[in-house]
């Protein structure tokens, strides 16, 4: 298969700060997950391959052409930025129609495409509301809509699921999965492994501006399994829950945080823990306020890969 | 580049019409109407019939040229290259098949037209209020036309100048204030050719000059010929807009983290 995006020794510095270092990659059609912790260089990489940043060294090509200051290529590329920023005085409909007019679509065609994109992201009934009145989930979906409305061959999504609640994330994952058509190249960045895992097997691991690994997500999953997962729970009765959890052999450690309602557990079998938890809390009638598992212990994998 | 410029123009004209900022500045640009109303009421109560044209010229000279259009151009012009970076909406525009110079020129045209409409509306209403009894005199409308033309040229030039400021400086409004209310106001009181280093000099050269005293300083305009003044204004516009396009072409959307 021919590479759609190619980078050669792609590097970017912001003054003395390294953004990306010596990245040489060939990206072929399909869904690719760009995985890395916050500040790893994901946004820098995506902005370099969309020509929003000029490389300090090396270069990026899309469809064989240099992307920097090459606006013609954007009729074939859709970009969904990470920032939750919009032209707030517009309605969702006006936002899409006007952006499509920037592509050069005549009025009727721009409206038809906007309608179609809003249908895909299920925002048709809210299309005439001002964007400032949209919920976070609706805003994320609108960002996705503007990236796909002109039917591009390459779609680049920078942290499209950040800030979404679990239901919103599931909806969004389904949306991207439904949309991946034949021959399209979709790059999705995230710092949360399960988000990427739900979308694709192909990943690029990025850390401290360097590409650590590319390939199958199962290899990463195996690495993760070797490291304990840390899961934090805010519950109504942490003592009772801790008492039940210590009896389980796959729980490595249970400890109480300073906060009176917070319990932190360590396990190597994250999936087993999450399948047991609902039954446990129902049985013990414990209310769960919050469950957090930051980065799904990706940091441990990155530390392992960089040899810490 | 023509078509992309028009596309950007349409987008930002539509967007700016809807913005809160435009509404605020629209009311602000109606201040001359208030001044005219006060003057007219005073004239009615005192039952005088003195010519109102010097008052109209003063409004144009002192309020509109040296204050209103500077403020409008300062806020709209400096935002052309900076607002989408600060508002993080730049990627929506720069990831379209539109070149960066086309973005700058299209936005500049949209903002210039909006500011001309704002300043023009206030000027027309002031004129009509001041000349309420003489509205059927066709010669008066030549004065109105001249005032509108000078204001339009002023906004065209200042907007281009401040577009460049917005592309170059992080605190463009601060530097714009220094330029607009420092340099532009002070240098024009200097005798000789020094005043030709201001934009307002060329604008004032296009208006009737009565040698009036302004504040404690005597303002002595040594006007440039009208044709040359218009040429200078177009030249300043082209140079600074071109420079702004050049600077913006190298602008990058740097991520926060």
Description:
The complex is a heterodimer of chains A (308) and B (257). Chain A is 34% helix and 28% strand. Chain A is built from ten helices and 14 strands. Chain A folds into two domains: 5-223, P-loop containing nucleotide triphosphate hydrolases (Rossmann fold, 3-Layer(aba) Sandwich); 226-305, 2-Layer Sandwich (Alpha-Beta Plaits), CATH 3.30.70.100. Chain A has 308 residues and is α/β, with parallel strands linked by helices. Chain A starts with a strand and ends with a helix. In chain A, 41% of the residues are buried. Chain A is globular, with a radius of gyration of 22 Å. In chain A, the strands form three sheets. In chain A, strands 6-7-8-3-9-10 form a six-stranded mixed beta sheet, sandwiched between helices. In chain A, strands 2-1-4-5 form a four-stranded antiparallel beta sheet, with helices on one face. Chain A has a four-stranded antiparallel beta sheet with strand order 12-13-11-14, covered by helices on one side. Chain B is globular. The longest helix of chain B is centred in the middle third of the chain and has 31 residues, at 100-130. A two-stranded antiparallel ribbon of chain B has the order 1-2. Chain B has one domain (2-249). Chain B is built from eleven helices and two strands; from the N terminus they run H-H-H-H-H-H-H-H-H-H-E-E-H. With 257 residues, chain B is an all-alpha fold. The A-B interface holds A 14, 19, 38-39, 43-44, 47, 50-54, 69, 71-75, 77-79, 81-83, 85-87, 89-90, 94, 98-99, 101-104, 146 and B 3-4, 7-8, 10-11, 14-15, 18-20, 87-100, 249-250, 252-255, 257.
């Amino acid at each position: 298969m021919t590479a759609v995006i190619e980078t050669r020794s792609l590097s970017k510095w912001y003054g003395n700060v390294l953004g990306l270092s010596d990245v040489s990659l060939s990206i072929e059609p399909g869904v690719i997950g760009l995985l890395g912790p916050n500040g790893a260089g994901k946004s820098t990489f995506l902005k370099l391959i969309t020509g929003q940043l000029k490389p300090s060294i090396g270069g990026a090509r899309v469809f064989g052409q240099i992307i920097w200051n090459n606006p013609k290529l954007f009729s074939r590329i859709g970009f969904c930025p990470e920032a939750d920023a919009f032209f707030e005085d517009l309605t969702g409909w006006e936002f899409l129609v006007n952006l499509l007019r920037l592509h050069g679509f005549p009025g009727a065609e721009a409206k038809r495409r906007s309608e179609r994109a809003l249908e895909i992201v299920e925002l048709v009934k809210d299309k005439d509301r001002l964007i400032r009145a949209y919920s976070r989930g609706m805003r994320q979906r609108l960002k996705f809509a503007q990236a796909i409305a002109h039917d591009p061959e390459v779609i680049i999504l920078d942290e499209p699921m950040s800030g979404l609640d679990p239901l919103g994330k599931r909806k969004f994952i389904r949306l991207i999965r439904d949309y991946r058509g034949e021959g399209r190249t979709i790059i999705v960045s995230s710092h949360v492994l399960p988000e990427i895992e739900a979308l694709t097997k192909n990943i690029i691991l990025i850390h401290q501006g360097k590409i650590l690994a590319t390939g199958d997500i199962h290899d990463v999953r195996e690495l993760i399994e070797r490291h304990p997962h840390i899961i934090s729970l805010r519950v109504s009765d942490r003592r009772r829950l801790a008492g039940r959890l210590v009896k389980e052999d796959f729980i490595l450690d249970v400890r109480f945080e300073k906060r009176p309602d917070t319990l932190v557990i360590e396990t190597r079998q994250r999936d087993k823990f999450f399948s047991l938890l609902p039954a446990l809390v129902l049985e013990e009638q414990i209310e769960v306020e919050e469950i957090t598992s930051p980065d799904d212990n990706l940091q441990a994998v990155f530390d392992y890969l960089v040899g810490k | 580049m023509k078509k992309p410029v028009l596309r950007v123009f349409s987008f930002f004209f539509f967007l700016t019409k809807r913005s809160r900022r435009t509404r605020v500045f629209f009311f602000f640009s109606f201040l001359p109407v208030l001044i005219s109303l006060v003057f007219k009421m005073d004239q009615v109560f005192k039952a005088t019939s003195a010519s109102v044209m010097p008052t109209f010229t003063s409004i144009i000279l002192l309020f509109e040229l040296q204050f209103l259009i500077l403020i409008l151009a300062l806020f709209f012009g400096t935002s052309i290259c900076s607002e989408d970076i600060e508002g993080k909406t730049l990627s929506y525009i720069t990831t379209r098949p539109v070149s960066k110079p086309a973005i700058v020129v299209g936005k500049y045209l949209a903002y210039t037209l909006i500011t001309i409409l704002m300043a023009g509306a206030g000027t027309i209403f002031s004129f009509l209020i001041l000349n309420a009894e003489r509205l059927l005199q066709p010669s008066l409308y030549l004065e109105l036309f001249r005032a509108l033309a000078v204001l339009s040229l002023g906004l065209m030039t200042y907007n281009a100048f401040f577009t460049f400021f917005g592309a170059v400086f992080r605190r463009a409004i601060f530097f714009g204030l220094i330029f607009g209310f420092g340099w532009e106001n002070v240098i024009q009181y200097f005798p000789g050719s020094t005043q030709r280093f201001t934009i307002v000099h060329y604008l004032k050269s296009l208006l009737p000059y009565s040698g009036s005293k302004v504040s404690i300083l005597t303002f002595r305009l040594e006007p440039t010929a009208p044709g040359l003044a218009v040429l200078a204004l177009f030249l300043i516009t082209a140079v600074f807009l071109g420079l702004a396009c050049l600077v913006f072409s190298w602008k990058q959307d740097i991520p926060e983290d």
